[in-house]
Amino acid sequence: MKKDRVQKLLLDQLRRVPILEVACEKANVSRMSVNRWRKDDKEFDKAVTEAMNEGDAFLNDLTESQLISLIKDKHWPAISFWLRTRNPKFKEKIEISGQITHREQRELTPEEIELRKEALRLALPKSAKAEEEKEKNN
Hints:
Helices cover 73% and strands 0% of the residues. It is an all-alpha fold. It has a domain at 2-73. The longest helix is centred in the middle third of the chain and has 31 residues, at 42-72. It is flat.
């Protein structure tokens, strides 16, 4: 059956390049058809997801291999990238400095006290609100 052959070809393409649009073009099938097949057939949907995961792993291995080749060729950007992303000693760091000053506190007005109570009441989970209501009624 043509559909089975096209689906197999699509899955093979996704294992090489996990980009659905590219795989659809190479398998000569529309993305709409693939999406419909995935919706109608959960096994096919699972197979597409697995093929894309395999494709991701394949490309990760390929790019890591290329990066290592560049490092062996003393390509400074590749060396720097590897060190910054893989070695904690060379990770980019952010330094934050500041100063905390303590301002004189003032007493809350009665209106501010009520607003704070209401905000706390609204922030409590439902179970705590029920307990609070129960305590009020007793």
